């Protein structure tokens, strides 16, 4: 057994967790592509991982136009709620805690993925130029998205709030607003994707407004203690270019700090040292994540916690291959390798068939 900061319990009076290891949100593309109801094995997949201090689900779309690709589940219809209720019941029965990630992809989708072949909606008609998008018809060039009207932006904020309400109906312990990785919320934050001149664009305050109003609307619906926000300052993923990440995220964090959210989840990726810069400004729980070419190591997370840069650390790819990751860390046990070709779509293979440690027979 190793004394690891990851294995210490955490209790801030609201989140009470047996360890500081969070399962990061990860899209697995296994929902029914038409109904967007979770795969029958999804309850087993998450229940197997209930030893995490906290699970954050894969992104779940808040609106049919917020769906990014094949097999991505939603949390909009009664059938979605019923499907996720089975998942949350299974995780709770296994002793875990689970938040739903609330997601709208904005321009990061394609008409073949959207109802009636509609154009993707985004803050501004800025096309992704240098990468393709995965669809049921394979990899396709991006189209130019249509700019949301002010009323559509407001309706989308309401859709996030409605999704949060559905999350509570489905038995989730809370929700995480996906404000990271170049999806809709970050498209409003970033200068290169938000060229609007209405109340959602122009000045810094206006660029922040969509993110702030989404969080406020979700908080009004389910209570701040059940709401987290994920951000990825300066992350260039999905052709985001933030000219002033420090100014943008300091102001965002200062604006949201008084709300008393459950947590802030920071992906540190770009040149801007987001954890060191934002940690002193955030009074609540902070979850850190690194997103590099290789799966983040146990040691990287321990270093962050030991340096006091975060309270909790989230792991993605290690959790795909190691359902019992905290147990393996505690036992200094070897880790299963991930099978990259089985990450997205399909059935049990590469999903629920990664083995847990076999207990050593006694006697
Ligand atoms: C297969 C896969 C799917 C992902 N899907 C999401 C997602 O739905 N929402 C999200 O915020 N991040 C998503 N991410 C990013 C992860 O949450 C995490 O930031 C990333 O994997 C880095 O952590 P790691 O090094 O521990 O894997 C995804 C990552 C992977 C590998």
TrEMBL record:
Gene3D superfamilies named among the record's database cross-references: Aldolase class I
Entries under InterPro entries matching the protein: Aldolase_TIM (IPR013785), OxRdtase_FMN_N (IPR001155), Oye-like (IPR045247)
Residue ranges constituting the NADH:flavin oxidoreductase/NADH oxidase N-terminal domain according to the UniProt record: 14-335
CDD domains linked: OYE_like_FMN
PANTHER family attached to this UniProt entry: NADH OXIDOREDUCTASE-RELATED, NADPH DEHYDROGENASE 2-RELATED
Full protein name: Alkene reductase
Species this chain originates from: Actinomadura miaoliensis
């Amino acid at each position: 057994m190793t004394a690891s900061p990851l294995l210490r319990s955490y209790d801030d009076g609201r989140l009470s967790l047996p360890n500081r290891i969070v399962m990061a949100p990860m899209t697995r593309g296994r929902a029914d592509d038409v109904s967007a109801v979770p795969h029958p094995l999804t309850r087993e997949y998450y229940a197997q991982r209930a030893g995490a201090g906290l699970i954050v689900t894969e992104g779940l779309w808040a609106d049919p136009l917020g769906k990014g690709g094949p097999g991505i589940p939603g949390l909009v219809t009664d059938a979605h709620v019923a499907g996720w209720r089975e998942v949350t019941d299974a995780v709770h029965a296994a002793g875990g805690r689970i938040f739903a990630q609330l997601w709208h992809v904005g321009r990061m989708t394609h008409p073949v993925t959207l109802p009636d072949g509609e154009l993707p909606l985004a803050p501004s008609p800025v096309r992704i130029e240098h990468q393709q998008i995965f669809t049921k018809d394979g990899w396709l060039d991006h189209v130019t998205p249509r700019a949301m009207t002010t009323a559509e932006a407001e309706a989308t904020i309401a859709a996030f709030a409605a999704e949060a309400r559905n999350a509570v109906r489905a038995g989730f312990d809370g929700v995480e607003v996906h404000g990271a990785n170049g999806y809709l919320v970050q498209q409003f934050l970033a200068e290169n994707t938000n060229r609007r001149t209405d109340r959602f664009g122009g000045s810094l305050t206006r660029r922040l407004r969509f993110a702030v109003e989404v969080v406020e609307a979700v908080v009004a619906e389910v209570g701040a203690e059940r709401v987290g926000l994920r951000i990825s300052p300066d992350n260039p993923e999905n052709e985001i270019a933030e000219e002033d990440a420090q100014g943008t995220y300091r102001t965002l964090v200062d604006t949201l700090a008084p709300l008393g959210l459950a947590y802030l989840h920071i992906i540190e990726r770009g040149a801007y040292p987001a954890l060191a810069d934002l940690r002193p400004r955030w009074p609540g729980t902070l979850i850190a994540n690194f997103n590099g070419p290789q799966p983040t190591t146990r040691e990287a997370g321990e270093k962050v916690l030991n340096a006091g840069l975060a309270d909790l650390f989230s792991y993605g790819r290690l959790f795909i291959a190691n359902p019992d990751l905290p147990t393996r860390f505690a036992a200094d046990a070897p880790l299963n390798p991930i099978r990259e070709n089985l990450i997205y779509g399909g059935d049990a293979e590469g999903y629920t068939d990664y083995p847990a440690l076999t207990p050593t027979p006694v006697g």
